[in-house]
Amino acid sequence: MNAIADSLDRSLPALVDLYKDLHAHPELAFQEHRTASVVAQRLRTLGWNVTTGVGRTGVVAVLRNGPGPTIMLRADMDALPVRENTGLDYASTRTADGPDGSTIPVMHACGHDIHVTCLIGACALLSERATAWQGTVVAVFQPAEESGLGAQAMVDDGLFERFPRPTVLLGQHVGPGPAGMVAKVPGTVMAAADSITVRLYGRGGHGSKPETTVDPVVMAASLVGRLQSIVSRMVPSQESVVITVGSIKAGITAATIPDEAELGINVRTFNPGVRRRVIDAIARLAKAEALAADAPRQPDLITGYHLPATVNDPDQTEYVACVHEGVFGPEAVIPMGPNTASEDFGVLAQAAQVPSVFWFFGGNDPEEFQQALCADRLAEDIPPNHSSLFAPAPRPTISTGVQALLGAALAYLEGPHADAAPAAAGTARA
Ligand code: ZN
Ligand code: ZN
Q1: Residues 227, 180 within the same domain
Q2: Residues 215 and 314 placed together within one structural domain of the fold
Q3: Are residues 303 and 322 in the same domain?
Q4: How far does residue 80's CA lie from ligand 1's centre (Å)?
Q5: Over 90: is that where the pLDDT of 98 sits?
Q6: Ligand 1 centroid to 149 CA: how many Å?
Q7: Helix axes 2-24, 33-45, angle to 10 degrees
Q8: If 0-12 CB within 10 Å is exposed, 13-18 middle and 19+ buried, where does residue 128 land?
Q9: What is the model's pTM?
């Protein structure tokens, strides 16, 4: 990897500039027009065959380089409605129009700008070193991961029919951790996620005469507490489940009891049977609350998005982890358990019906991370993804992300190492 490291060293300043530019120009789900055009322009310059507008704002870039396996590399592109508080000189000051016409701040608070930069960097090195490998690489720049709709939009727009079908699918995510470290997770990497809205119906009236009303605010408050009993009392202790009520909407003024209250509920599960049980329990408890309050109408349960769990192929994960150990050293690749975060990468893997590997890589200055760890202050001092303070250190995070993608891709493409790839990818090579 020495020649690669030299090339990467040379291209790193330009990649850091690209990252800072993307960071300063974040775009919300399905609004990634500028990002998509930056991506398309870069990849066209590199000589890749680029298609834009796949799944609305997605970009697919293909490099055919002789016979051999097809590898798909995926990066997500969208940002979040968060007001950036990092104080960085490349911090975002961008806003966007909210669904109700209001102005909302936008920030790359999940590191998707790092993902785009790393995939562009890996594509550039694959182009530069095209004589060292054979096969086809499909680089997918996916929109709208945060809304959970982007991967499906690309699948519905013919991602696996219009472009070469991969033999293996690779993706990565930056997160809290020492930069330079890569986490391997054989099996389930991330939880399934469901969003559910519960609308409770009461009978509004004057705040001074609650006995003449059915108060949906009291029903909602009671339901929030009771929902946590699903986790503590209805699910086996060895199963991991998270239920979060992230929004409560009811009423306008203090002296008026409203007619309705609405809870926005988010559920994370790892096991389809447990997921069913949790969703059934939410419905049951909502109905029971309405019955207890003598509500005039049964509550409504409105299901929002569902993301499947992200499941890594164990053999391919071990293979990629071995490659990463070769690139970064054995001490830099750490085994990790499943994470209650969720991703729509699993939608791509399910639709393609091919093995996939998804890994995490650290984005923090290693010394700062170590200090926080030793002081038992990780939660206080290391801002997580989606925080207004989330700020990966461009160096060495970007070079780690580029090398992790490039190393994994080259290990499958026809070349000196590819014969060691496990059967799932090897069979398709024939
Ligand atoms: Zn995110
Ligand atoms: Zn993310």
Answers
A1: no
A2: no
A3: no
A4: 8
A5: no
A6: 13
A7: 150
A8: middle
A9: 0.90
